[in-house]
Design a protein that fits this description.
Helix content is about 40%, strand content about 15%. It has helices spanning about 10-20, 40-50, 60-70, 85-90, 95-115, 145-165, 200-210, 235-245, 265-275, 300-305, 315-325, and strands spanning about 1-5, 25-30, 55, 75-80, 120-125, 170-175, 180, 215, 230, 230-235, 255-260, 265, 285. The longest helix has 21 residues, at about 95-115. The chain binds nicotinamide-adenine-dinucleotide and uridine-5'-diphosphate-4-deoxy-4-fluoro-alpha-D-galactose (UFG). Nicotinamide-adenine-dinucleotide binds near residues 33, 59, 60, 99 and 176.
Length: about 325
C-alpha cells in the first residue's frame, strides 16, 4: 500500500514509518517539523534502506493537502500530526483546538474527496479520564480535564460521524497508553523540546546528567507503592499495532486500545531502569501533579482478538532502548 503518514517525523510516527517500510509499504510523510527534526527522515532511510517522500507542509493547509492527494494515489493515511503536551494545552487551548481538530477535518475531507478509504487515527487513553481500570473500548468517555484530551475525544467523534455519512470511509481509532523506548538501532527515539513532561525522557535526561534529579509526583495513591501506575508500551510494539490496524482494517469505525495490559508504578519503572542500565538516578518524592489519575492500564483483549496483535516487548527492553537512544544523542 501507499500510505500518507502525517507527523511521520515525530516520535511515534517515525517508528511507524520504519514498521510500514519494513513490511513492504510505501510511505509519504507530511510534517511541518513544528515538534521534530528533518534529520529523523534520513534516520528512517538509514534504518530501512528504503526511500521515503517527504513534504514539509502544515496539514491544516487545505491547498497543500489537496496538492498532495493530487500528486499521489494513497491507499490509506495514518494521522499522527498534532500537538500533544497536556500542560501546554491548558495555557494554549486555541492553538491545540485549531491544530488538532482542523488537521483532522482537512485530512478526512481530502480522503473522502479522493476516495482514500483507510484512515488510522492517533488517539489517547486520556479519553477514558478516571474510569475504573482496566479501560475497555466500550466505556463511556469522561470529559477530559484539559484541552488536549478534548481534542482527541472530538476528533474521534468527527471521524465517527464522517464514516457514518460515507460508508466507504473506514476508520481505526487507536487509543495509545504510555509509549516509551526507541528503535533498537538507537537512531530514532523520543526527542522532547525543553524540559520533558513525561516520565521516561525525564529519567533518561537525569541519567545523562542533563537534569539533576527526578521528581516523583506523589507516593500516596492507592497503588502498590503509592506512586502512579501506567501501562507503558514499547514504541515499536505500538508502531507494529498501526501496521496490523491498517492491514486488517474492515469497513466501519473500529476503536482499539494499544497497551500491554500491565500496570507499572513510577518506582517500579525507575528501579527497572537503574537495574537494567546499571545507573543510579537521584529522585525525590514531591506533591501529586494536578490532573494526574492514580492508575491507567488497558484491557487489550479486543486488539488481540480482532487484530491478532499483542505487545511483545517488556519493561526491560523499554528502559534499555530508551537509554540507548538518549546516550547516543
Ligand atoms: P510528536 O510531537 O513527536 O509528533 C507529532 C508530529 O506532528 C511532529 O513531528 C510535528 O512536527 C507534527 N505536526 C504537528 N502539527 C502539525 C501540522 N499541523 N502539520 C504537519 N505536521 C504537524 O508526538 P508523538 O508522541 O509522536 O505523538 C503522535 C500522535 O500520537 C499525536 O497525535 C499525539 O497526540 C498522539 N499520542 C501520543 C502519546 C504519547 O505519549 N507520545 C500518547 C497518546 C497519543
Ligand atoms: N511522573 C513523575 N515525574 C515526572 C513525570 C511523570 O512522577 O517527572 C509520573 C506521573 O505522575 C505519572 C507517571 O509518571 O504517574 C506517568 O506520567 P507521564 O507524564 O509520563 O504520562 P501520563 O500518563 O501523565 O500522560 C501520558 C501522555 C498523555 C496521554 C497519556 C495517556 O503524556 O498525552 O499518557 O496515553 F494522554
Amino acid at each position: 500500500m501507499n500510505i500518507l503518514v502525517t507527523g511521520g517525523a515525530g516520535y511515534i510516527g517515525s517508528h511507524a514509518c520504519v514498521a510500514l517500510l519494513e513490511a513492504g509499504h510505501d510511505v509519504v510523510i507530511a510534517d511541518n517539523l513544528s515538534n521534530s527534526r528533518r534529520e529523523t527522515i534520513d534516520k528512517i532511510r538509514e534504518i530501512t534502506k528504503k526511500d521515503i517522500i517527504f513534504y514539509e507542509i502544515d496539514v491544516k493547509d487545505t491547498n497543500k493537502v489537496e496538492q498532495l492527494f493530487n500528486n499521489h494515489n494513497f491507499d490509506g493515511i495514518i494521522h499522527f500530526a498534532g500537538f500533544k503536551a497536556v500542560g501546554e494545552s491548558v495555557n494554549k487551548p486555541l492553538e491545540y483546538y485549531y491544530n488538532n481538530i482542523v488537521s483532522t477535518i482537512v485530512l478526512s475531507k481530502a480522503c473522502i474527496k479522493y476516495k482514500v478509504n483507510k484512515f488510522i487515527f492517533s488517539s489517547s487513553a486520556t479519553v477514558y479520564g478516571d474510569n475504573e481500570v482496566p479501560f475497555v473500548e466500550t466505556m463511556d468517555l469522561m470529559p477530559a480535564t484539559n484541552p488536549y484530551g478534548q481534542t482527541k475525544a472530538m476528533s474521534e467523534k468527527i471521524l465517527m460521524d464522517a464514516a457514518k455519512a460515507h460508508p466507504d470511509f473506514s476508520v481505526s481509532i487507536l487509543r495509545y497508553f504510555n509509549p516509551v523506548g526507541a528503535h533498537e538501532s538507537g537512531l530514532i527515539g523520543e526527542f522532547p523540546k525543553g524540559i520533558p513532561n513525561n516520565l521516561m525522557p525525564y529519567i533518561t535526561q537525569v541519567a545523562k546528567g542533563k537534569l539533576n534529579k527526578l521528581q516523583v509526583f506523589g507516593n500516596d495513591y492507592p497503588t502498590i507503592d503509592g506512586t502512579g501506575v501506567r501501562d507503558y508500551i514499547h514504541v515499536m510494539d505500538l508502531a507494529e499495532g498501526h501496521l496490523v490496524a491498517l492491514e486488517k482494517l474492515r469497513p466501519g469505525v473500529h476503536v482499539y486500545n494499544l497497551g500491554t495490559g500491565q500496570g507499572t508504578s513510577v518506582l517500579q519503572l525507575l528501579n527497572t531502569f537503574m537495574e537494567v542500565n546499571d545507573i543510579d538516578i537521584a529522585y525525590e518524592i514531591v506533591a501529586r501533579r494536578p490532573g494526574d489519575i492514580p492508575i491507567s492500564y488497558a484491557d487489550v483483549s479486543k486488539a488481540k482478538k480482532e487484530l491478532a496483535w499483542t505487545a511483545k516487548r517488556g519493561l526491560k527492553e523499554m528502559v534499555r532502548d530508551a537509554w540507548n537512544f538518549e546516550k547516543n544523542l
